[in-house]
Amino acid sequence: MKDTILDERTKRVLCAVVESYIEKPEPVGSRYIMKKYGFDVCSATIRNIMSDLEDAGFLFQPHTSAGRVPTDRAYRFYVDYIFQKNLISQTSEIKKFIENLTKKLKRLRNNMDSLFLEATQSLSQATKYLGLALLPATEKTALHRVDFIKFKDDLVIAVIVNDKGIVKSKIIRAYHEITQKELNSLADFVNKNYQGKTIDEIREDLLIRIKQEKLFWDKLISKILKMCQEALYFSKEDVYVSGLYNIMQLPDFSDIEKLKEVAKTIQDRHLLIKLFENISEDEEVKVIIGQENPIKEFRSFSIIASPYKEKDRSLGVIALVGPKRMDYQKAIILVNAFAKSLTRTLSD
Q: How far apart are CA 333 and CA 19, in angstroms?
């Protein structure tokens, strides 16, 4: 039995099982489905359909006498089905929530830390899942200004402010004799020549200048330019995660071992960045269910993610991570709305 040859009644039965299990994580029986969803056939017919769906890999039966539980394949069918049938719609409650959120985000647009903290916390509180946000990669944002502060001996603190108001600082090495006056001049040079250019563009230009200076100018200038390039190098993006306490309330994570697994996974920033690195290229909401995830650590979860942008430029990702028994309709609506709100806020 393939997805493409499921008749409409079988599709309705499968969706009913998925929705029932999302609502209450207990094996779903044929009699319950028949009564709740008003099927005009007897429970034996529903039971036969469910048995066929089990043979096809959409459902499984934990015990002989129990009802059925959806598999990853069932959740994937369900998500594709509600998209295809355009069954995803906002309730008045969700609309009001999104309107209030948009107003909050606009008030916070000059404070990126508060903006993304509010976004992930609100997303988590509305769903009881983990709210995540991948901030704009530093290299893709434009420089607002840079300052160099002599720290001690040959150490200098570089403070970078990008066009999103995100402040980055790092300690770099310089030559012993460098003075604060020279550092101020270097900062003036960078701010005058590169303000408004992306960090990637600046580093490329500096690399060209370094090669030229090696050939034609003093080695000291080459050292200064190298120092400047090092100041503008950042190894990873920032990730905001909110809602570990919220998912503790879900029956899916009542097992302490499962909860430990979640906590361990979201603490690994490298894993989170790897998870989102391709999503920012997508145009709309992406749903990744269980075994579909190329990263094995996330195969126990479902992920709803969407890129947010500044005009046409992709900046980062906003997402929900939760159990496979997730309320997909609500999660998709909210992630899509949050991404659009962030896009509007950052583009204004």
A: 16
Tell me the fold of 3-84: Arc Repressor Mutant, subunit A (1.10.10)
Task: Please state the domain extents for the chain.
Answer: 3-84, 92-137+237-347, 139-231
Hey, what are 299's tokens? 């195969």
Residue 288 makes CB contacts below 8 A (sequence gap 6+) with: 298, 302, 303, 305
Q: What is the pLDDT of residues 65-85, one digit of tens each?
A: 778 999 999 999 999 999 888
Enumerate residue ranges in the chain where pLDDT < 50: 1-2, 4, 215-217
DSSP string, 314-337: EEEEEEEEEESS--HHHHHHHHHH
Nearest to 246 by CA among 122, 158, 148, 332: 122
Residues paired with residue 161 on neighbouring β-strands, in sequence order: 145, 167
Q: Which residues pair with 219 in a beta bridge?
A: none
Contacts of 144 (CB under 8 A, 6+ apart): 161, 162, 163, 165, 195
Residue listed under structure tokens 């991404």: 339
Torsion, Cα of 7, 12, 16, 22 (10° steps): 80
What CATH number should be reported for the domain whose range is 139-231? 3.30.390.60
Three-point CA angle 174, 177, 183, nearest 5°: 60
Residues 7-58 have pLDDT tens digits of 999 999 999 999 999 999 999 999 999 989 888 888 899 999 999 999 999 9
Name residues whose C-beta falls within 8 Å of residue 260's C-beta, 6 or more positions apart in sequence: none
Give the integer Cα–Cα distance in Å for 326 and 148. Answer: 48
Only one residue has tokens 């409409």, namely: 8
